[in-house]
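Need tokens for this chain, all 330 residues.
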Amino acid sequence: MALGLALLIPVGPWFGAGPGSATAAAAPLPRAAVGAPLVIAHRGASGHAPENTLAAVDAAAEQGVTWVEVDVQRTRDGELVLLHDTTLRRTTDAAERFPDRAPWNVGDLDLAEVRQLDAGSWFSPKFAGERVPTLRELLRRLDRNGQRLLLEIKAPARYPGIEREILRELAREGWLRPLRLYGSLILQSFDETSVRTVHRLAPQVKTGFLGSPGRDALAGYASFTHQINSRHTDLTVDRVADVRKLRGPHGRRMEVFTWTVDDGPTAVRLAGMGVDGIISNRPGEIREALRGAVRGPSAPEEENGAASGDPALRTRVLDGGRAAAGRRRR
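Here are the structure tokens for all 330 residues:
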């Protein structure tokens, strides 16, 4: 079986022998920056462009946001496409285009049919004609923009085998090469079985579980996921600390990403709790709010444009900026 999986997913011998193995531990993922939390564009910069489209990815890039979160599903003919809802009704003109195909499930239409849909007009006439992109198109646009990917596997129980197909596509597009894999890619899902499957098939891929497991259950999650990514209203200082004191599959500190945060004061409060990532529809604004909390209302600027303000958060942001600069130099 292991040989069969290796042949199905051509990711190279560096991939490791599986969870808990000496080989997997030998090439650990990099430690998250101890500075300010990452700011991640939710479904792209979806406060500024239609969600899960290339326009939203580009909007994030225009705001200088490196990390992009999107959702992936599968069409009837087996193509991987970006969409949040399991139906096409809310974010496309599927009901008008195919009135007899209700409820317009993603898995009930072929890619050629999905390609006919307008995925932008619902958001603004300015985006009329925007299409539902494939995963391949997304990966190539992220390459062009120099961006990184937080990919949510949406409703995987509807799409048996989708984890293997996603990994295969990532491998084809070069996203499972070691240097990119370790710092540019996270796969996450609300479905525990799906996260476990990704970790079993590709133990070196960084994974996240979306949800808020009980405190007593957290250690079990640490065996197969690197992150516990919770709704921001579920988080407390103690909750974040409980996750971050654990060691994940590669012996690295576990992380907490949180969603969906669109106001500055909430982002600053969460940063003070120690979260590692903040997922936002308005990522540029959240990043500026964090920078403002570092600078303070009227303090003179210091190193990297930061000054007095919240001293602890200032330290986190400055350290995070140095870490990001170091990654760019590499």
